[in-house]
């Protein structure tokens, strides 16, 4: 059976810029035409890298109210969240530039079930201890989302689980809820990235030594290229934890870059 040369007779099933079938002429075309690479060279550690912009996505981790905002859970515990808020500008610059290049933006946040039915004690205990008896899904000691809506700590649908207003998320971005340190465990993240044809992942967010590193490591184990945006990542842990994270990423799991180098490279392309 020959395929018609009239491309208008075919309809894309899926994202026509990425993985898709073409339907038409009584046939299903599964050939998936090759996507021309869009190489971008970026200064990095331990060595400079070249990524394909058409096979890249940004994952922004846990930049949500309970971790970052005044009145959120961490703020209510007396933890200084100002280092986290210093990430807003560099993350926004990176997001704007990547979005202009049609590079997917994934917002990966804690969003636990209200009944916590899928959370084991070993997952709940560290948050319960750090929170002085108030942990995942417990009534918030800080600001509630609304009088009628969910208000549990890091609970899906609650104010504390939402991306902070200061960051420029859009409805066309991708939002994934997680309920573990790693965003790959028991979530659709891997399926989404594979459907997008992504191979290289950029990482930003908090905490560098917890959820950012845990998700980055699992991405590495899944076969993705992993690249940490240094100036778009922070932690509430002691600074030696951040330095250890940077060392481990560069030594074992991938590369680290500055967001300005990424933005410059994309704008020059």
Question: What are the main properties of this structure?
Answer:
six-stranded parallel beta sheet, alpha/beta, single chain, globular, 269 residues, Rossmann fold
Question: Would you give an account of this structure?
Answer:
The chain is an alpha/beta fold. It contains nine helices and eleven strands. Helix 4 runs parallel beside helix 9. The model is unreliable at 1-5 (pLDDT under 50).
Shape: globular
> What structural class do you assign from the helix and strand content?
alpha/beta
In percent, how helical is the residue content?
A: 25-40%
**Total beta strand runs:** 11
Class of the domain at 39-115 and 162-268 in CATH? Alpha Beta
What is the CA-atom radius of gyration, in angstroms? 20 Å
Overall mean pLDDT score? 93
Give a short account of the largest sheet: 6 strands, parallel
Tell me briefly what this model is:
This protein is an alpha/beta fold and 269 residues long. Helices cover 30% and strands 20% of the residues.
Write the layout of secondary structure elements.
Blueprint: E1 11-14, E2 20-24, E3 27-29, E4 39-42, E5 49-52, E6 56-61, H1 65-68, H2 73-76, H3 82-85, H4 88-100, E7 105-110, H5 121-130, E8 174-178, H6 189-195, E9 200-205, H7 208-221, E10 225-233, H8 239-253, E11 255-257, H9 259-268
Helix pairs in contact: 4-9, 7-8
């Amino acid at each position: 059976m020959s395929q018609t040369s009239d491309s208008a007779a075919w309809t894309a099933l899926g994202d026509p810029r990425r993985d898709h079938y073409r339907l038409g002429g009584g046939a299903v075309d599964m050939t998936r035409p090759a996507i021309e690479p869009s190489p971008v060279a970026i200064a990095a550690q331990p060595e400079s890298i070249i990524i394909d912009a058409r096979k890249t996505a940004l994952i922004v981790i846990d930049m949500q109210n309970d971790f970052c905002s005044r009145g959120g859970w961490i703020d209510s515990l007396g933890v200084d969240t100002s280092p986290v808020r210093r990430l807003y500008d560099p993350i926004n610059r990176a997001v704007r530039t990547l979005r202009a290049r049609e590079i997917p933006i994934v917002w990966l946040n804690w969003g636990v079930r209200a009944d916590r039915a899928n959370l084991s004690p070993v997952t709940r205990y560290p948050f319960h201890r750090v929170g002085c008896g108030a942990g995942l899904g417990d009534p918030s000691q800080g600001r509630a989302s609304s009088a009628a809506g969910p208000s549990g700590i890091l609970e899906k649908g609650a104010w504390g689980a939402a991306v902070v207003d200061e960051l420029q998320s859009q409805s066309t971005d991708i939002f994934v809820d997680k309920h573990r340190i790693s965003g790959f465990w028991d979530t659709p993240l891997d399926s989404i990235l594979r459907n997008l044809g992504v191979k290289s992942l950029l990482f930003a967010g908090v905490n560098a030594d917890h959820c950012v590193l845990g998700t980055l490591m699992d991405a590495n184990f899944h076969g993705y290229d992993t690249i940490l945006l240094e100036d778009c990542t922070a932690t509430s842990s002691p600074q030696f934890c951040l330095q250890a994270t940077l060392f481990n990423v560069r030594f074992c799991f991938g590369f680290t870059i500055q967001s300005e180098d990424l933005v410059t490279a994309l704008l020059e392309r």
